[in-house]
Give the backbone structure.
Amino acid sequence: MNKRKFVLAVLTAGALSVSAQSVVPLQELYAQADRQSRKINITRLSLDAADEAVGAAKTAMLPTLGVSLNGSYIGDATLMKRNFSTSGTSDVVLAGIGPQRVANGRQPTPHWGNAFVVQASQVIYAGGAVTAGIRQAELGWQMASLDVEKNRQEVRFLLTGYYLDLSKLYNRLTVVERNIDLTRQLIQHMEARHRMGTVLQSDITRYELQMENLRLMQVKLQESVAVINHQIATTLQWADDTTILPDTTALLQECASVQAMASLEQWQQTAQAGNLAIRQSSVASELADQHLRSVRSASRPSVSLIAENRLFGPYTSDLIPVDANVNAWFVGIGISYDISSLWHNRRKVHQARYQSLQSREQQAFVHETVENQVHACYTHLLTAATEVDCQTKQQELARQHYAVVHSRYDNDLALLTDMLDASNTLLAADMALVEARIDMLYYYYQLRYLCSTL
């Protein structure tokens, strides 16, 4: 094998070992998270509960209907004088008959009683409490829906961070593996020269120490890869031994889209319109307004339609009971007003009003916070893009330097150590460029996260 083929084989050995693994696109992680993430599923259950709460609140507009049925044993009535004596007689006025003298003591009474009552009512006006309660339930559903989307964005951003960290780690691992191969070949070459007496043992020892450091670095990188793989697998409910390799081609395409990114004003407009924290603060502000309306309704009268039918027996309202069933019904309008609410509810109204004002201030504060976060992230993105340009230039220079040294090495004008140094410089430049691109992608994805568009 000639010198050129030897160097190319060493440089490509590490890359082949990594690329043999399976590639998982980032969008596939997103789709799997939507189906399997426990954090998202928890908020989906909250959304289902909020949907039921809306239905429960709307039932307040429906009429109420109550039915009662009971039977009883009625004891004998006892007629007594005012001094509680049961002797003698008492004058009793009987309906339709007039005054009658009745002997005191036990009076014959029907013993078995029954009652069947049907009551129905329909609220006509409750001071706005019913509509406010329904609106609060609907806003609660909106908040739960935003929580689902917020958790989805958080999980996606978390997976994005893991994904980009994996890209960095695999890139570093590739460079370390290449350096291990290069160092191993260098040690073999120096040992051959040591046998010829042209290299000292101390020079070999120095590179052996470098080899051990590289192997330790390789183990640490592999352990970091395993940790992140486990975190992703746990989040997505995958098997613990799942190995994920980032799609570098798709990441490079994303880098190209970042270079044609929108202006700061466009990012700010998108964030102000779509950021979930802003949208949630808006819903919270309206919730506070509806709570104020609900509290105020307690100081207003309520009006209801009322209907009742009562079937009961025996009739015991007179002294002489009637052993018969009596049916009576009525329909009317009921008005109730708690006068004490004028002073009992005043403090609650003031409290709810301050809470409404606080929610509006909180909404404005969230707008300011998001604006600052977008500005800072966009600035970091521009800096990262500049770094990518610088690293691209350094990579070009490293490639040119490598080409010069490689040409000299082919013509026996440079040592193998010079060739290996040039190779290491090129590998380091490649690694720095990849990591700069990943950093730029991170700020890009963070901007999308702030705009809730992941």
User: Anything to note?
Assistant: The first strand starts at residue 23 and ends at 24. Residues 180 and 212 are 9 Å apart (CA to CA). The radius of gyration is 42 Å.
